Amino acid sequence: METPYPDLPKGKIAYIRQVERKSLPDDIQAQLPGDAPIWGVHAADGECLALARDRAVAFMLARQNDMAPVSAH
């Protein structure tokens, strides 16, 4: 994906953002421990590709899959 913003990384971008638990399917919510925040790795089109219990892990997952992670709010 080419972008007109020079400070963003080149290549496939992964957007990392916190996900609200109530927005997840019930079966996924049932597997989540405690009240810890959940972080999503999202494609440019908004599709959630992965979930992580830690923001750093979400960034690592993106990098391991040859994506350039950026924070999204």
Low-confidence stretches: none
Average pLDDT works out at 86
Largest sheet geometry: 4 strands, mixed
Total helices: the number is 2
For the record, the count of structural domains works out to 1
Percent of sequence in beta strands: 25-35%
CA distance, first residue to last residue:
20 Å
C-alpha-based Rg, rounded: 13 Å
How many extended strands? 4
Secondary-structure element order, N to C? EHEEHE
Using the alpha-carbon principal axes, give the shape: elongated
How are the strands ordered across the major sheet? 3-2-1-4
Describe the structure.
- The protein has two helices and four strands; from the N terminus they run βαββαβ.
- With 73 residues, the chain is an alpha+beta fold.
- The chain is elongated, with a radius of gyration of 13 Å.
- It has a four-stranded mixed beta sheet, covered by helices on one side.
- It has helices at 26-31, 55-64; strands spanning 13-19, 38-42, 48-52, 68-71.
- The chain has one domain.
